[in-house]
Amino acid sequence: MNELLTVLKKNVREYGMYIALAVIMAVFTILSNGLFISSRNIANLLNQTGYIAVLAVGMTLVIVIRHIDLSVGFLSGFLGAVAAIALTQWNWPVWLTILLVLLLGTIAGLVTAFPVAQLGIPAFVASLAGWLIYRGALMLVTAATGTIIVPNESFNAIGNGYIPDLFASASFLPNVHKTTLLLGAVAIVLFIIGQISDRRRKLQYNFEVLSTGLFTAKLLFISVVLGFITWILAGYNGMSWTVVIMVAVVLVYYFITQRTVIGRHIYAVGGNPEAAELSGIDVKRITMAVFASMGFLAALSGILFTARLKSATPQAGQLFEMDAIAASYIGGVSAAGGIGSVTGSLVGALVYMSLMNGMNLLGTDISLQYIIRGLVLLFAVIFDVMTRKRKS
Amino acid sequence: MSDNILEMRHITKTFPGVRALNDVNFVVRRGEIHCLVGENGAGKSTLMKVLSGVYPHTEFEGEIILNGKKVAFSGIHDSEKAGIGIIYQELALVPEMMVYENLMLGHEIRRGITIDTPEMIRKAEELLKRVRLSVNPSAKIKDLGIGKQQLVEIAKALSRNVSLLILDEPTAALNEDDCENLLDILRLLKSQGVTCIMISHKLKEVLEIAETITVLRDGQTICTLDRQKDEVNEQVLIKHMVGRSIENIYPPRTTKPSDEILLEVHNWSAFDVNLGRQVLNNVNFHVRKGEVVGLSGLVGSGRTELARSLFGNPDGYITTGEMIFKGKKQVFRHPRHAIRAGLAYATEDRKRNGLVLIQSIQHNISLANLQGVSKNGIVNEELDKQNAVNFVRSLSIKTPGIHQLVMNLSGGNQQKVSVAKWLFVGPDLLIFDEPTRGIDVGAKYEIYTIINDLVAKGMSILMISSELPEILGMSDRIYVVANGTITGELDAKTATQEAVMRLATQY
């Protein structure tokens, strides 16, 4: 018990986020008489989170290297409209449309990065210019048609569809999505194996680790939570394509940031750009790469959002960038640079969207919703700064 | 009333896991210049932070008696009000603002709701006169040299009516001239009745100025020496600081440089586009394999500019001239090209641009050579950790583990991490800018030993240093830089400090 307390105290920042998420979910569950935690609503919540979480992952890296990208909201709206036009007016196949949009997004990221990396223009200004330009571009392409309805079933499945149940059976758990259960089980097993091998490695180098008892308890706890989420999802339509994409993005970015050379370089540039440059790291190239990834993810976010609405509207993407920035900060990214994780920003996005979803369920007035979201963001950042101070 | 302006009694200050100060007693007499010496991590800065209220009175044990009265500060404002002024190593001036604005920052003189500029300038002139600094009060701070900035900082403290002035390594970044000047100013302040506490690593200047010297070691007071009563010299101080006497400050080198020339630089010039001035002018020099070449010169003479212009030119100077490295004509357009070719540069300011302080020892060590621990762009954690463990062991970096953040290490251990980073790259030539700046005597000796080991293995070192004894003690040959050009070459065996100084001041 003593160890548990010290561990909690030491990692209050990291665990605080999870605790906050759990508390928010519990409160809304109680206030909504269980409606919040219902299978249908959780599935809905995760689908809502998708396009913001994807942006937040990219934004986290941008903030880690001490920049900001305000252009991504309208960029994702604009690229969503481009996708809609490609599908409905040019009659392009879905795969080609997606490829085009992702490519355009990556190029747009590079265009934003160029003045920042090569000419030293503050990212705030460069991306503010992008914000204006993409807003205009979105209005321009939707001017003739207004909202563009996308009738394409397979494209819309990205935002609304669920993975097929490969093991559908009328006799064994008939109303449960078996493929989702299986995926959940695989995830739990992989998680446990990963944790155990990680712990063994840490022990080898005399890192501080949890005691065996507490470690087992932690594994058990997280496995139960994962299992519970899986069970809830499996009880509705199973796992949605949005969740699959979101989890894939987080996993890929987690791998890149934690295990690759370029990931190390990104954090070094964020931690001390001058030292990074003098250690032989091409800071300009890293900056270009991080913004390009942001643009790519903005395009992905645009696809998710357009597919979810089954249409592209002239207002799409409005304030997405602010939501993503808020989610990143709630997820623990440091404005001073060099600190922040993509898993953190996923949890940040979940916290943020849970608030929105929960308040909508309760019928909270929209004006009050904004105020509460603002207060939560403020509290999260204050909490972050306080815990960091105490550590050092 | 006693003649002690300050008595700190039984001060104990603990951080999680460390006892930084352990029952420290520290007494300062009114009107004296009192030096506080000790190795890095001995607790000097912590003690001064306790005194100035950075650590509020609730966070330590013991009592502080100022002017015969017990005081309890909750913050730096309280200590300022009580007449204590503290000047940190890193200056707290606003570079873009003018001298007088900086002097009166937070204490602006007002007339009604507007600022009374003429009165402020008049007051500023008065203050500048007290530190004998003749600069225009309307000059911008960034246009002043570091030595003058230091004096502005002191004048600023004086404007707050300090009776006890604390200086934390005021001369660390100053050249010899500015050091002398600063010491003169301290004597002047003493004559005006200001008591000074100075922390310093430079024992020579301590002996020059101090009337009383307190030595701290491992968070404890070792002794307080009175210059009038006690026999005090450098050897004695070092003995108290490290708890043993160091016979040789510079370990002897057994190997000789080979005849093979590794680096040749001909007519090397560099123009700084941002400053719009020539920073290097027709520099010619060479470095042999297995040789330690000292690059001496005053701060601002162009030593660091020379190193950086050769090492991939990160400042974007326009360079002309020829550089032949390992027999090949080279121009490196980015540090990574230089590193790949076998040239490394350890910066003079490891905190600012040498290390990523918020990252672990492990990540810092492999930063410049991640290819060495990765395959297809994926880092092999095992290899990376093993590599870090090996360096921590071979350079005896004092740390609980390789996951420790570099910002939590002492200066000497940080410098070793910086060395490890470059050793892992395995360069042929290491440009070592101020290898022992701000690190304690024991760690210095270790760095010197490492340098000797490296040249024994055939590596060459180009050592930039402001400390003349170090240049003389460690180099095989010495080049002296002044005003962006090399003013002379000396054989270290026969060179004297005076000879180097003469060349360094040649304009």
Describe the protein in words:
- Chain A has a two-stranded antiparallel ribbon with strand order 1-2.
- Chain A folds into two domains: 42-161 and 240-342, no CATH class; 165-239.
- Chain A is globular and about 65 Å long.
- Chain A has helices spanning 2-10, 12-31, 39-64, 72-88, 94-119, 123-143, 153-160, 178-204, 212-234, 241-259, 261-271, 273-278, 283-309, 320-330, 342-362, 366-391; strands spanning 148-149, 311-312.
- Helix content of chain A is 76%, strand content 1%.
- With 392 residues, chain A is mostly helical.
- In chain A, helix 3 crosses helix 15 (342-362) and helix 8 packs antiparallel against helix 9 (212-234).
- Chain A has 16 helices and two strands.
- By secondary structure, chain B is an alpha/beta fold.
- Among the domains of chain B are: 4-242, P-loop containing nucleotide triphosphate hydrolases (Rossmann fold), CATH 3.40.50.300; 357-426, no CATH class.
- In chain B, 32% of the residues lie in helices and 28% in strands.
- Chain B has a six-stranded mixed beta sheet with strand order 6-9-10-3-11-12, sandwiched between helices. A six-stranded mixed beta sheet of chain B has the order 18-21-22-15-23-24, with helices on both faces. A four-stranded antiparallel beta sheet of chain B has the order 2-1-4-5, covered by helices on one side.
- In chain B, helix 4 (117-130) packs across helix 5 (146-159) and helix 5 runs parallel beside helix 6 (176-191).
- Chain B is globular and about 70 Å long.
- Chain B starts with a strand and ends with a helix.
- The relative contact order of chain B is 0.10.
- Chains A and B meet through helix 11 and helix 12 of A and helix 10, helix 11, strand 20 and helix 13 of B.
Main β-sheet description of chain B: 6 strands, mixed
Radius of gyration of chain A: 21 Å
Oligomer state of the chains in this structure = heterodimer
Tell me, rounded to a whole number, the average pLDDT of chain B. Answer: 89
Could you tell me the number of beta strands of chain B? 24
Tell me the total number of β-strands of chain A. 2
**Second CATH tier, the architecture of the domain at 4-242 in chain B:** 3-Layer(aba) Sandwich
What is the overall shape of chain B? globular
DSSP summary: helix tally of chain B: 17
Quote the distance from N terminus to C terminus of chain B.
54 Å
User: Quick one: overall form of chain A?
Assistant: globular
What portion of the residues of chain B fall into strands of 2 or more residues?
A: 25-35%
Element string of chain A (H = helix, E = strand): HHHHHHEHHHHHHHEHHH
In DSSP terms (H or I, runs of 4 or more residues), the helix count of chain A works out at 16
Distance between the termini of chain A: 25 Å
Cα-based radius of gyration of chain B, to the nearest Å: 24 Å
Text of the CATH class of the domain at 4-242 in chain B = Alpha Beta
Q: Name the structural class of chain A.
A: mainly alpha
The CATH superfamily title of the domain at 4-242 in chain B: P-loop containing nucleotide triphosphate hydrolases
Strand order of the largest sheet of chain A: 1-2
What does the average pLDDT of chain A come to? 91
